[in-house]
Amino acid sequence: MRAVRLLLLVLGASAVGYGGWLLLPQLGTALPWLIGGPVLHDVLVAPLVGVVGLMLSRLVTNRLRLAWVTAGLLASATLLLIAVPLLWRPPSAPPNPGLPDRNYPLGLAVGLAVVWAAIVIVLVVVAMVDRRVTNRRTDRP
Amino acid sequence: MIRRPRIPVPEDFTAPSHSPLVAARLGLWLGVAFGLCFGTGLLSHFIQHPPGWFTWPTRPVNLYRITQGVHVLSGVAAIPLLLAKLWSVYPRLFVRPPLRQPIRLSAHALERLSVLVLVCAAFFELVTGLFNVAQSYPWGFFFPTAHYAVAWLVAGAILLHVAVKLPIARAALSTPLRGSRAVAAAAPGRDDSSERRAFLRTSVGVAGIAVLATAGVTVPWLRRASPLAWRSAAGPQGIPINRTAAAARIVVPPDWRLEIVWPGGRETLSLAELAALPQHTAELPIACVEGWSASAHWTGVPVVQLLRWAGAPTGRPVRFTSLETDGLYAASTLPAAHASDPLTLLALRINGEQLSPDHGYPCRLVAPSRPGVLQTKWVARLEVLR
Prior knowledge:
The complex is a heterodimer of chains A (141) and B (386).
Chain A: H1 2-23, H2 27-59, H3 63-87, H4 104-139
Helix pairs in contact in A: 3-4
Chain B: H1 20-48, H2 63-89, H3 102-133, H4 143-174, H5 181-186, H6 192-214, E1 257-262, E2 265-270, H7 271-276, E3 280-287, E4 293-302, H8 303-310, E5 318-322, E6 331-334, H9 336-340, E7 345-350, E8 353-354, E9 364-366, E10 379-384
Parallel strand pairs in B: 1-10
Antiparallel strand pairs in B: 1-2, 3-4, 4-7, 5-6, 5-10, 7-8, 7-9
Helix pairs in contact in B: 1-2, 1-4, 1-6, 2-3, 2-6, 3-4
Organism (chain B): Micromonospora inaquosa
Keywords (chain B): Membrane, Transmembrane, Transmembrane helix
Domain Oxidoreductase molybdopterin-binding (chain B): 252-385
């Protein structure tokens, strides 16, 4: 294991060195885009996710329901993130017929609607199964 | 009870999603996604800038379409996986450095530095890749070289991270997720093991949704279903266009003649003469570096037959030059394997129609298993290399 780790260390350091050397001519313009991700995530996104998670766990007390609502929120957030470059297009390349050619606001809305419709169906089914189980238990004590 | 606000410590985060069992599994899956992305990206780089030892097969004709589709879709899948992984290890951000032990402190600092490089580079690759597929460039650097350089940073930083974390990761991966009954009985009312599994399931499920939402760019039967695909319909004459004749400032001269040169010889022919040569039709994809792809029926003269007709040598690489005077893709070198392939066409027609100016009128190169940017349009000259 020690040898494997040492090998990984050497390979990793060389690859990082090579990448850094390749990036050097463009480091100035790339730096804000390199630093931006972690700063935005650690300072803004992660605390926000934590706060939303805490609030949600107070609002939804049933564990199974909470898990599905969380899944819906995470899927929605991911779809929103993927849609950003399609919805927000500052200086883009010259027009290319047939490329980014969908109605993206509509597509995003439909995608989110499908995700939440699926989750509502799951929650309703879960609630029905729950009720049936409870009924059966009360019928035959 | 009033608590004074303070910077949290890792122990403040008690959710099961922060368990090393979760982080190690997410790390493994993220490693697979980034590994696929890096491997296919490297292939694409080598196809476009081939080192001497590199050869790329011409069959199956869809090979590049598949590798580049995997590249883009594994990147899309990595977005939710990376966020889930970062959430899982977020408490580690608040580990206090061992200030009084210089050796441990320097090890701690080095590890933090390697993780910083990894996170910076991983975000950079996913964000720039996502903007690039949408053909949006809100930055000052040149995308292909920066994306390639930072890919090495990601790959190297992942190896460093694995080297550091290997013992912890191995222990975590060999511990089953499903907690034993004894553990569950010890802490009733809270089922950490089922919450850990739920978090992992959600992460994978969301990655799957992200892939489904975009895979229509290259998977034909998902084309109309993927709401966030960066192309939908077939496009003009059945294929989307990545660079218009207007953007390339193409003016086809009225006396246009195709020029074929080789060491010790030269031949030219008009469009009518080219159209009078025996024509072949082949179904070949345009497979873009941006991950989208679409097949069309191309009709034209096989390059190998054109060279034979001109009396030029075959079995050698051929350089195709466009009417485009500037621009990165004004010329491309067709490797010998592709130049000899009977399916490689100098196409005059697409799906039964004459090529439109945007598709490369008067003629364009279409070869199997090649990136779209190298399928030179508005061809003016073929040069057989040595």
